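To the structural biology subgroup,

Please find below the input and predicted structure for DNA-binding protein, which we are adding to the shared reference set this quarter. The sequence is reproduced verbatim from the submission form. If anyone notices a discrepancy with their own records, reply to this email rather than editing the shared folder directly, so we keep one authoritative version.
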Amino acid sequence: MAQTKIIVDSNSYFRLAQNIHPFLCTPFGKEDFTIYMHADLNVEIKCSSRIRNKFHWVSETKFANNRGRSVSLSREQKSEIADTFDFMWEYVKEEFLAGRGKGPSRVDTTIVATAMVLGIRLVTDDQDMMELAGTYGVHQITSLGLMKLMLDEKHIDDGKIDQVVGQWIYDNDTPYKDWKAEFRRLFGRKVPKGS
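Predicted structure (tokenized):
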């Protein structure tokens, strides 16, 4: 069976991969859902001492090895992604950066463009990336949405979800303002005690 690819951005990777391992390149469920990172995120991790200090675990061999493969792209796909990035980046500069002074980074925009060209789901908790994905019709889900998919496909259980959410609280790295409401809506229960 062909994989159903999903691409994850850095914020969701950092929120999920420490406690759901192996996180990347491991098919699960009836549709062989398989999560990938964009190769640019590996470069970002290698070049950023801030990221490696904040998320000390990313340098451990088992996580570095799990990031060894990124989503594979043909020459034609790379060209189409570059073209898609160009018009998306113009939109980001006009609608986000000029008007608001902030918005998706170049890497974030590349990830949205990749999801669009490949017709795959994007996992992000970044509000600007969500907005950009929505503008271009890219199927986007949150970290909680991905965990719900994993739960439905019996890849993880409620205990693992509670462990992940507990880590977010401990690290003071919750996704966004209304994440608790999304948790209740997706899982039909309150956020676990201590969260």
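Summary notes: The mean pLDDT is 93. Residues 43 and 115 are 19 Å apart (CA to CA).

Regards,
Lab coordination
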